[in-house]
What does this fold into?
Amino acid sequence: MIKAYAVHAAGEKLQPFSYEPGSLDRTEVEIAVEYCGICHSDLSMINNDWGNSQYPLVPGHEVVGTVAAMGEGVTKLELGQRVGLGWFSKSCMQCEWCLSGNHNLCQVDAEQTIVGRHGGFADRVRADEGWVIALPKELPAEKAGPLFCGGITVFNPIIELGIQPTDRVGVIGIGGLGHLAVSFLNYWGCEVTAFSSSPDKEQEARDMGADRFISSRDPEALKAAANSMDVIISTVNVSLEWSVYLAALRPKGKLHFVGVVPEAIPVQAFTLIGAQKSVSGSPLGSPATIEKMLTFAARHGIMPVTEEFAFDQVNEAIAHLEAGKARYRIVLKH
It folds into this structure.
C-alpha cells in the first residue's frame, strides 16, 4: 500500500490518501521517496488549469529517493541506489523520437508522472527505468529534486539551441526556473542578463551569476537593451510586450519559451524576417540531457535555492507557493 497526499477535486486541499499499486511491470522501478519538490505545474494540475487533471490526484514530479523495488527487466539500477524522477515517467522507447534520443518528444506512449497516474507526494512512486535517473553523489538529496523539472526545463534549451560560451543570453523572470537558468548560463560561460519585475531581486540575480539586471517595468532600460542578445529564455507564465524582447535580440537571435504563457504570442513576420530571428519553445529534456545536466551541476556545485517543509505541511507549502512567496523552490521532506 502506498501512502500519499491527494486532492479530490479542483482547488481543494490535499488529504491523506492511500492506494494499492499492483504488481511491478517488467521495466518499472519503485522509488522510496525521500524528498519531493513542489513545482508550479503541481499547482496547475491541482487546480485543473490545463483541463487534463484526473481526481483523486497525487501531485509531485521532482522526486529524489532510493530504489526500493525493480521489475525483472530493469538492468541499469540497483536496490538502494539514490535516484531522481521528473515530469516524464515513461516513453515508448521505439518511435522515431525515442530512437533518436528525443524521448521527451515521444508521440506514441509518453506518460507524465502526475497526469492520469499518481505522483511523488507519497512514500513511494513508480516509473519506467528509462526515466529514473541516478543522482551523482556530489549533489545533496535535499537540494536535487527541483533539478528534475525546473532544472532540466532551463538546461535543455542550452543544449537544443546550441548556446555557446561566447553568447549573450537574457533570462526573463528570476523565480523558480529563472534563478537556475542564470546559474547554468553563468557557468556555461555566457554573458547573462536578468529581466525581472522585482528590483529587490537584483543582488540575488547578480550573486547567481547575472552580469546585467534590467527591470522589466522600466521602458527606457528595455529600449536600451535593443540588439544586444543572442538568445532570450522566457521562464514566466504571464503575457508581456514581446516585441520589446524581440527587439533586444541581435540578428539570428532566438526568443525561447519554457514558461507557459496564457495568451497567444503576437509576432510580426517582418520582425523575424528582417534579421532572421526566431521564436521557439521546448519541453524539459531527454534522459540523456538530464544526466548531462546533473553532471554539469555536480561539477560546478549548481543547486537550486530551496525552502523545506515536512510532508504533513504540504498544504502550507502549496499556499506559500500560490502566494508567490517561494524563494525559489519548495521541497517536501519525509
Q: What stands out?
A: The mean pLDDT is 96. The domain at 152-281 is CATH 3.40.50.720 (Rossmann fold).
